[in-house]
């Protein structure tokens, strides 16, 4: 039966069903993402964001539309993840902005909600890009306003919303060349359409269309998107935070009044893809940006308050590591400052040694090797546990029971957590960080460690050892990529030096030899070439690699079984 209004309870159920549809399709949405450096996984990000909102309203009994909207929008905002999640949260913020202080909403008011959804979403994006989720909400809103007089029921309204949104989604490849080349639609836009389809299904109680779309249920999209694409061009860090304005960590501190214009100006040279949301009601700032220097952005922000949540992710690693955990997709990535309060740092005493060293490693095999051969006290196997949290680092530092501790990380994605851990424990333990880009650099640094020497001298020597070594990684390209200096084809073997693809070839041996040629030119008087082979390499292949390298360069070549997963080979030249 057609109706000219919608109740609070109906809208609540529609929000929940919208999330349900996205949660059944999130893997499909993930695989629509074809950009060289995707902002995480769009489907996962949207699912996390929506779940945060749904969890706040699922069991609630809301007497007005306005109350429901505010709670749902706040839940989305606090849990927004990635570009798509942030933009979706703002679409809903706009949609709920004009919800009435009543138990019902009529057709005209609903159309205005979609208009506000578009306006708010566009207002928070510094440089809106068409061919994205923004286009879908804009064209949907414009079509609703254009055809307002024809709409006679809320059921018809939402049927048209889905129709207009789907039409807009089909236009996204015409606006973004990357989508057209891959023959897919925008992933964030698809997520929004899925949410709207869920809302319509709940309203009409006709679930046949969404239930029959089996091709979308967590299956891979027919695109050139690859699960382990490698793009190592130094795109930096995806940086997100929630900042509570005026909050102090100490009473004696003073915080400045937030000046949005000045803050944007302060960080504009350091960031790209900036999304800044100022929730004036809650006095919370949410930022999403891409930057090579996240510490600079955080420092500028902290003068206005203290962080409730921080997330920093290396975008180059994001394209390699797919999020698989269905229940806690982003918990281990988030530095929750309150969690640190459960650790009694004052107990960090009764030291057993003067100096100790902790290192992150890409496999348990390499961890055992550095403990046995290089006097390392503890290793953190990131292939088994994922990226260590701040709490993890603190616990490892505490566990070695040493007055002075050196942490060596083999991945720049681990730096922020390690630095924060050090800052939390520095009152009790002297701790220094050695930053490496890969395990070869880490191994080179560790080889210079002298337990009997001072912390200061060890840090100086370890950093010097890194500079004396050339390092590279070999992997497989998962799709066609064209750079100004190089054309990479899908399934090519690629050589990566200093986060840049320098070699691409169908032949693994030629790729290795050409990559070593680059390294040999960088290192003065090379005397040793070290090959660390990964989990999926054969002994015959490794023997051939060692033979070819030794013969071509006339330098002694040694191989080690590393059993690492992400790279077929690490190469080091000393």
From TrEMBL:
What SMART domains does this protein map onto? Answer: Dak1_2, Dak2
The molecular function terms in GO held by this entry are:
glycerone kinase activity
Q: What are the GO BP annotations of this UniProt entry?
A: glycerol metabolic process
Q: Name one Pfam family in it.
A: Dak2
Source organism superkingdom: Bacteria
Boundaries of every DhaL domain copy: 9-201
Q: Which NCBIfam families match?
A: YloV
Q: What is this protein called?
A: DAK2 domain-containing protein
Organism listed in the record: Mycoplasma bradburyae
Identify the taxonomic lineage of the organism of origin: Bacteria, Bacillati, Mycoplasmatota, Mollicutes, Mycoplasmataceae
